[in-house]
Batch of 2 targets.
Target 1
Amino acid sequence: MKLCALRLGNVRRFVDPVEIREIGPGLNVLTAPNEQGKSTVFDALHAVFFEQHRSQKTSVKALQPHAGGAPQVTVEIEHDGARYRIAKTWKFGRGEATVHRGETLLHQADAAEAFLETVVQRPADGGPAGLLWVRQGGVTLDPKDDVTARARRALATSVATSISGEIEAMTGGRHLEAALAHCRAELDRYETARGGARKGGPLQRAEEAVAELTEAEAALGAKADALREAIDTRERLRRERARLLDPEEAALRQTRLLEAQEADAAARAYADRLARAEEALGAASGRLEGCRLRRDALLGSIEAHDAAREEAARSAVAAAKAVEEHRIAAEALEAARAAETDARMVLEQAADRHKRVLRAAGAAASAERRKALTARLAEAEAAAKARADALAEAAREISAKALETLEARARDLDLAERLRESAAPAIAFDPAPGGEGLVSMDGTPLSPGARMPIPDGARFDIAGVGRLTVFPGEGGARDGLDAARRAFSEALEAAGCTDLAAARASDETRRRAEMLATEAAGRLKHLAPEGVAALRQALAALPEPMEREPEEHGAAEHGAAVQGNGADLPSLAEGEAAEEAARAALTPISAALQAALVEEKARKERTIGLESAARFATEALRRAEAALSDHPDPAAALATLETALAAADEHQRAAARTHARLAADAPDPSTAAARLRRTGEAIRQVEVHARDLETRIIALDAEIRHAAADAVDERLAETTDAREAAERSLLAVRHEIAVLKRLATALRNAQAGARDRYLAPIRRELDPLIRAVLPEARVSIEADRMLPETLERAGRAEEIGILSGGTQEQIALLVRLAFARLLAREGRAAPVIFDDAIVFTDDDRIERMFDALTRQAEDLQIIVFSCRQRAFASLAGRQLRIEPAEAAMR
């Protein structure tokens, strides 16, 4: 069988009919961006050949567009030398199926379905397309297929299952050991060794499936949104990169670079001439400066000799005078020290008498202290009670964190309502003259020109015409709004408030109570910095009041003489006055001592300094005399140096004039170099930015390919199917166990014969393909189970399951191509269809995969769908396009 043409109508995004014409033998390629309908075409083809026209399966319903209607698919095929036109329309219980040869109607309804079974030789589990038609994400080497997806085994089966199971189904033989092991494993999922139901098996999981799959549906919707955003970003980056790499702009940048290079070279050459003139000027200036320095040195030596002679005489006189002054200052210091010792002894005696007076007066002061502490303790206890009462009141109200959470939930609810309004349909009424007030929404007349959102639908009454009802859609914004409302209600309940206003009032009450608590805490801190307990301890620690001594001489309370220790003491005022007088007398004596210390130190330091200066002056005089020793006649030597200086000055002036003339016309080499750097950097930045954009585009391509490989829409439909199937799984599981037991018996009987029949032809077909893509590599097939077991290369065998995703993908496709060649040689040719199946293959190997596809296409029909337009540009073959249908297919 070969496909020739395809027409779709009312299928998903293709509400208007489209078609793919002139599908030829060999290699056919259809490349287009994502969301252009490639997977829809694949699903439509699969539905024609493998879904009954009366089917009401979810996978068939998924072909409907959003607007509803009956999907229609027509395909032209070539079979046994004749051309047939097969058409199906699904009306979900009342579908139609027809088969035409030319203009002759051959079959319809069930007869048409029977004809299709003979064409594709389809058994119950999917026929050849179960192996050879691979949709997005359907390539894998994982042998652990999910048996609950038997109805979809033909679309997402593993390579291991393909070898051991579906080849047998296609060729009419029996399953091999891998299928038997898989069958046993599936039975073990349902039953224990004793035949009882296994805990945690499908029967138990069916009850939990609906909730889990509902969550999966939401996650898949989010992935679809992320995929669309990545596609938009990639298109924007491609436009930006095309602008950067525009040939005219690139040529203009190169022209500017050449001009900058020429200007830089000219500036460097002129700079060399200027540098030579500058070197000559520098040499002349050096000679001039040398003459000037020698003259100035001689003048300095003469002047230094005269100054050194005067300084040596002066410093000797000053040093002798300083020695005498230091001796006088040292004698004064000794006298000041003796006077300070006497005054300090008088102060110590007065202070001792004053301390005894203070101890005697302490008992009298403790009574006043006790009274003050008692009053402060009462105030502190009152403040502590006020603080505790305020904190208790604050604890009864809403907390700041709870109010913050409630406010956040309120903002989320407001945002959700606004998002729903922004995403909801809206209406605007622009009445014709005389039409004002004739249309009302829910009883309220519409205002002209105002935009009104209607997220929950609305009723419009049109005077004299009737009523128009708009029903709300099923948008996801409603789910977000309901979630926000639930979160807000839960936050209110957690806060113990009826509404947001009550919560805010409670928060204000709490704030006032906290403020009162803070004020009470401040008073308490002021009254009892170390706590109320410390106040109580301080009060208890005060000495008991002493009995007052009898007053004598008629003195007042604080001025009376105090009796103590058997001796009369002066009054408190007298003792304090005596100590202060002694202290006052000590102050000027101590100041005089300090002044004497300072004076003696200063005189000593000055003496040392002047003596040092005298030594240095004497040494300087010796150096000055040595410096003039080479010039017996300093005046004649100075005249000779003046003559040489005048000649050097004239030579330097001539060199300066030459340098100035060149410098006046010199181009700025820094400007030329800066222009060259700027021009080169601009080109480099464009290249770097272009490479960065390309890297980002490649990353987005990989992200999009990865997301596309996930087949979000198909997985979403499959998830819905699985949820519905879970509700029926309880009745189906018993039947499945019986089928698996009968299948296991049949597989064991057919085990030996199938093994030898398939191993040799599989190797003959598979080995050349493996070598073409993976040179020096060989896939070993396990003889007992007929499964690809290892990949052997460089003397090392690697298990298939641990290879990279790209290598597993390549081996899986090559195995399918080998099986397709086997079927073709047995007269059972079937088209090979890959829908974005090469996802993880790198640029080098993808070219080899193209070679393998081209090789197999010599006697097979291969159809490749891909969104990787750039990568698949080098894949030769007939280029297919999805085009608007021009007329009915004939």
Note: The chain has 19 helices and 23 strands.
Target 2
Amino acid sequence: VMDQPSVIDEQYDEVGNNQLTFQEIFDIDGIYPVWPYDFAVYPRDTVTFKGSTVNPFADFATYRFEVDTTDLFNSPAHRYSTQFSAGGVVEVEYNEWINVNSGMQNELILEDSMVYFWRVAVEDTGSYYWIESSFQHINNKVGWGQDHFFQFKNNDFLFLNYERPARQRTFGPAFRTIDCDVYGNATSFLETAFTLYHIDGEIEEYNFCSINPQLLVSVIDPVTLEPWGTYYDDGATIHNPNNDFGNSNHDGGCRPRVEYHFAYQQNNATQMDAFDNLIQNEVPDGHYILIYTARYADFINWDADNFNTFASLGCDSIHPGQTENKPFIVFTKKGNSGGSGITVLNGGTHEVFGDTIESDISMLDTLWGFDFYGAESGPLIGPSLNWETAYWRLDSLESPTDDSTRIQIWGYTHSGAATILIDTLTQAFDSIPNLGSIIDASTYPYIQLHAQQWDKTGFTPSQIDGWHVLYDDVPEAALSTANTSLYWVPGDTLYEGQDLAIAFDIDNISDLPMDSLLVKYWIEDAQHAITPIPYARQDSLRVTGTIRDTLEVDTKDFDGLNSLWVEVNPYVSNGEKDQLEKHHFNNLGQKPFFVSGDNQNPILDVTFNGYHILNGDIVDPYAEVVISLKDDNPYLIMDTEADTANFGLYLTHPDGFQQRLNFRNSLGEPLLEWVPANASNRKFKIIMQSNFEQDGEYRLLVQGVDKSDNLSGDFEYDIEFEVDHNSSITNLMNYPNPFTTSTRFVFTLTGAEVPDEFTIQIMNVTGTVVREITRDELGDIQIGRNITDFEWDGTDEFGDKLARGVYLYRVIVKMNGEEIEHRESEADKYFKKSFGKMYLL
């Protein structure tokens, strides 16, 4: 999201067109050290170092590991090892190290209480992107610790300087800048968002709820220089439980989160009384107070106590009798004796007023802390199954000393909500032996150590020589193809419907077993839509064990560039994984593949009694109608009853009633027969044994799609045909006519049966029969339009060639000994008294 909150004037939309959401995969050939994990307390004197590649399916590469007792990696103990491996888990055994200085093999036996620094990178022509980790070996102990001074270098320091050359901490400069902006009479999103304040350039809070003019109050701790937050219950943790000051944005009243100002509606007398109480009674002397208006000061709704509250802060620009509504900013330190208009740095109260209600105003000042205070926070510790013991060692830089140290232990839920669970003033050497009785690991699987330091005499903080937390560790699983290459068949490009098969390893790289393993698969398609792939829970993952996981994926409907994703031990709710585990980045794998979509139309074919008919043809009332759909895609064969849903069959009867032809009736009984396609013919057939009871014109509409929803062409099959139960025959036409070598006979039959007697007599002009063609010679005859298979070649009964000239012919057709009716047709004009004329050239 760009320009959020909006502080740049824009001509058009301030929100919708300032944001872009997209998903992108970055192929990074990096590797992280994962075992022993960072700051681990490791119990045995030999260890197998393990790194996990960012991409578990990465190609083969050479990885360089280094280990030493200093993070400078320059001591006589400096060792290295190179491993050529595919992606996933890359390992170095304790006896695979080479001493950098001697070039000789140098196995690593860990010394008790020694801290070791190690790093790993992809080897690339001598240039390395190192990822560093450290751990401490303590015999038979498991947990977390920072013991070497160099292990503290990336901690969070507040008003403390981490001075590496001297290997000590000193108090640093304790000041920060604070600035505030108010948009006068703000109403739009742009204007309300512009009402905000920063500390050291970082937005602490912005915007406000409700269009009613309000007073926004920020209270800033003079020691930590951090603003107070509002009370908020997120359902798992109550944040700032003591900060209920009658403000309108209490407990998510404005936004569902902790806010870093307290809002008071100026037209609400109860809230304005609560405002007075906050300033007069709740905020201790010495705390910084920033008060600024949301829109403007609505003085008409103030009472005398409200004005007195500002007077107590040293304000002289705000006094009874004011009626002109203007925005303002007031910044002060409670208990200051200086005058108004003076910067807080000089002990005064800083006031900024707008000239009109529409004025935009700003204020800049400085927050000063103390040169005898500082704080330090370590990284997150865990996750843990059970917390056991916490202990620490502190050293003073002078003796005697007035150093004071408070140790806080913060607990973190799975969702990341933090709560202070232990806050104690500590001695130089101290411990909490029964940590599990105070902190429930099932609620707080992570903790964090904080130290607050004071020294008002020597102005030097206590030095943390080391702090440790022992606990019951959790296992660690990782995707890998290092020991067995990725099985990926048939490749990165497939035809739609072709199955994709993948196999890889899931390794347990820890010293603890995992329960039955949940693995989550999904496909992200070319449009970034997510399709989950159901997958059964796997076997348990034992110590040093491996599960070879395999999956087959149907690529139907995944046209284009896709990604197959796998997540081992996935998150199941609100930041909580299915099983507790140390890392998660090495549980996630992504493999792109391209599917060439099926966009070829299938071929639809319809026959009546095995013949293709023309529009308007006559058909057998009991014809067998066969509908077939042929798809050339060999991977999407239509071979189940479910594929009948790909057809739409509609029959319109002579009376105009349109009927959808179903495959089963309401009782589930079959009405239409279907024949599945197979790999050789790829043709799905529907067989309809018809019974067209009415005489007249019918219409058959057939629609068909293949499994990729490709239509069977630009137009559906739509044909009209006629049914006539009465037996009749049209006059026969010979074709071609005239002819030289052969001619066939064309006619149309109606009725339900083919005549049992069918004779064609050919005569010369004198009336002598020169050739008689029988039913058996004519071949197949059907109800409807016929063109005989038989071809008369112009020969007589004996096979002799007849002379060129004109010949007459007629047909004799009988059913059960009786002649059938003549059916009128366009051919009648070429016949005289049922005789036709042909020309032999």
Note: Residues 3-16 have pLDDT under 50 and may be disordered.
